[in-house]
Amino acid sequence: MTGETTVRTAVRIHGQSAQRQAVRALLEGLSTHSGHLLVTGEPGLGRTALLRWAARSFRAGPVLDLGPGPDRGARGTAEELLGTLRAAAGEAPVLVCADDAHLWDARARAALGRAAGLPHTAGRVGLLLSVASDRAVDPEFAHLPVVRLDPLTPSQAGALLDDVTGGAADPAVREELLAEAEGNPALLLALVHRLSPAELRGHRPLPRPLADAGTLAEVAGGSLTGLSAPARDLLLTVAAAVRASDGPDVDAGPVLDAVRHLRPASAPVPSLEPLPAPLALADDRLRFHGPLVRRTVHAAAAPDRRRAAHRALADVLEAGGQPLPGLLHRSWSLTGPAPEPALADRLAAVAADGTVPASYRLRAAAYARAAELTADGPARAERYTAAAEYALLAGRPDRARPLLAAARGCAAPAGVRGRAELVRGLTELRDGPVGDAHQSLLLAASLLAADAPADAAAAALAAADAAWAAGDLPACLATLVPEPPHSHQHPAPRHTDTPHHPARPVDAAAVPGDAGRPLPDPVRDHRVGMRALLEGRLDRAAEPLGQVVERARTDHRPEGLLRSASAALLLGDVEAARRAGARALAAARQLGSDALVPRALEYLAYAELRAGRHPQARTHAEEGLRTALRTGQRNTAAHHRAVLALAASIEEEPDVVARHVTAALTTARRHGLAQAATLAEWAAARADLGRGRPLDAADRLGLLVLPGPGRGHFAVWRLAVPCFVEASVLAGRHEDTGAVLTDFADWAAFGADPQAAAQLARCHALLAPPDRADDLYRQALARHEEAGGDFERARTALLYGKWLRRRRRPREARGRLGTALAGFDRCGAGVWAAQARGELRALGAASHGGDAGTPTRLTRLTPQQLRIARHVAEGATNREVALTLAVSIRTVDYHLRKVFAALGVRSRLELARVVEQAEHAGPAEKTGAQP
């Protein structure tokens, strides 16, 4: 190193939003009562930062910082401690922060624990404690409510890194830093601090290992001091065993056998009693309480002792019939970095053997280690590429990128370079600019065409996916051109100096078979059908896409099932999409393919959304968002956020809609995700429409659906046309609808959207003269009965009921509005149910549900006056109120004067204050117009 990078102070806490919310609740509760909270987390996750944030945020009284350390002899009893705290607080509440309370001596810990459990009869005291989670929680604190800090997600860690480096890190260096830190913010900062500016910018090679023993020990603190030699051996052996395990825990039996190999023959038989504090034992499996301490134990051990532990594990595992982990341990027991061709070939062979049970993660590790031990450049590149393929399937794109960078540094034939570009493109498709992904995938298809046409077709189809995500219709069509004639022929054999070819993993976005096989029919069918659909030729699209859907009946691979779900969505067969998506999800979980789980949940969420089942769509999207963030798939996460925004747009949760829309658009704009952006904007507009803001909704939707360069995604904007027509009619902009309604009629005739025919009839009813509207509304409702879907049917019934009320047909209006209310209630569309209830109140009918009562002060108003008052209190102008309620501005002016007089207010601001106070006062009597 030539120097150290100056690390900027992070301007905010990254992640931990749920944990901050729990601390905030404690602080706010101190205004009325005492409380306590225990913050736990591995060293480096930000316990100290969270306590400091709490201290800065607390304004209601003094903050006492007891600080860490064992010198607590002055505080002998809980009562004395509480007395001291109350005296310091006086009449105001007091917040007590005790960081690293596990470092206190036993007497002080006991006093603090009892103090938290005593009733605080005098004074309001908030106890906020933190303890490290690299050991079991001390029994003195076991009764306290716990908030656990989590590692940062890849996107949160990336934001922190950009914060402290000003975005100066080279992309490859950035990816390696994020992978090495594993979501630990303090470790990430320590790694950055270790690098020189030239290393950070990629101008000089990085130090190896990047996270050395000193850096890890600095972050871990003193958690490994005072251990006996047997305890150190046990910790080291567990830490070594986890490196070749499929999870954070390992079987205790082989570990104890390996420890026995490490110890002299005369040493006592290894035992798990007493268990060292950093370890936990459950169901005969051992694990560390946290990954940082495990890594520190392994890195800080003496090299010869570390190699001996791996050698002992290799002997035990190979004897027990576990060849792949045994070979990995054997490779880690070697001295020095010199190539070992024989061992490298054995590792690659076992990793390629599909009959050997092993996870994607373990195969990735085996290929990466085989590459490190390989001297031959092309073979080394191929093995790094295979490692990256499996890392991607394991849901670790952060691991795949450095492996691809290593492969790029080796000479390799076109086929290997094509596979590397395929992995790179798929990684970017899920977590990068989709324009870059498109180019990488096209390059992959070109490089693979000669020797691996099946993989070339997979790359081309994935390139079409990238163009689809970007909303680039010409590029999508160009990518879906019919395959060249040689694609259907058997490819030439792959030439390589590697004696054992890697088993080819299959990806959901790509559709390869093993190299050396003819192009599978599903790939060709999907491409042909997708192109025909985009060209508007449903007759030519139905057969090939239908074949892809039909294959889901016999296919058990998640990749094929995901392809079937995609084809079913293209054809509008939402039930087939749900079935295929659910089976793909089960298959991906069974195989341990973490990368495919968010994609399966995405298809399930879209299918439920298209079917009008918003609560189910929300459930799938919430899980999909969590898994996408955990596996570093920000683009997939943006799609899940868009679905969540659409689901929330029918509920009474405007803040939730805004949060998901903002997050989805942030990623969509950075990565060029036109589809996710269009869905998110549509969600925001539909929320406006549901809350009675047609002008805002029409403005938003006009940008998405009207012709022009800013029109939304080519496959999505038509779905928003019914909302646009409704908003435009309510806003008095009928003339804007003609340009898009013709296109929507073509879309409805196309037959790929089961709701479109009913929605088209509803749009015509909204625009029709009175003598035709009645029949059109009835036609729309009849078509809804055929298509199903509570939400859309209820929307049509609501609009029809409004129309009937304005035509002075109250008996018919009540029936339609009651049907609409029941439909909205059934699908959880709270904001639309409120509209139906308001219409029923205007008819003098009492609606069932939570809005049957009205706060007492507002009972002086008639139903129409109440509706106008509520809209004005929300900030609507008289013109906006008139448009929303379908009355004249003069009518709104008349009723508003009556409202002012009845409530004794003189301004709109006073009216808003009265309505807010009355609404919060709780339900009271019904309005005077209700029977």
Notes on the protein architecture:
- With 931 residues, the chain is mainly alpha-helical.
- Helices cover 61% and strands 4% of the residues.
- The chain has 43 helices and eight strands.
- A five-stranded parallel sheet has the order 2-3-4-1-5, with helices on both faces.
- A hairpin with a 2-residue loop joins β7 (279-282) and β8.
Percent of residues in helices comes to 55-70%
Average pLDDT reading: 84
User: SS-based structural class?
Assistant: mainly alpha
Oligomeric assembly? single chain
The main pleated sheet reads as: 5 strands, parallel
The poorly predicted ranges are 70-76, 484-520, 849-854, 922-931
| CA distance, first residue to last residue | 84 Å
What's this, in brief?
The protein has 43 helices and eight strands. By secondary structure, it is mostly helical.
How would you summarize the topology of this molecule?
Layout: H1 17-29, E1 35-41, H2 47-57, E2 63-65, H3 78-89, E3 94-98, H4 106-117, E4 125-132, E5 146-148, H5 154-165, H6 171-181, H7 185-194, H8 197-200, H9 213-220, H10 229-242, E6 249-251, H11 252-262, E7 279-282, E8 285-288, H12 291-300, H13 303-319, H14 323-332, H15 341-352, H16 360-372, H17 377-393, H18 397-408, H19 414-431, H20 434-448, H21 453-470, H22 473-479, H23 521-534, H24 538-550, H25 558-571, H26 574-591, H27 597-610, H28 614-630, H29 634-648, H30 654-671, H31 674-690, H32 694-705, H33 721-730, H34 738-750, H35 756-767, H36 770-787, H37 790-806, H38 810-826, H39 830-842, H40 863-873, H41 878-885, H42 889-903, H43 908-920
Helix pairs in contact: 3-4, 5-7, 6-7, 6-18, 7-9, 9-12, 10-11, 10-12, 10-13, 11-13, 13-14, 14-15, 14-16, 15-16, 16-17, 17-18, 17-19, 18-19, 19-20, 19-21, 20-21, 21-22, 21-23, 23-24, 23-25, 24-25, 25-26, 25-27, 26-27, 27-28, 27-29, 28-29, 29-30, 29-31, 30-31, 31-32, 32-33, 33-35, 34-35, 35-36, ...
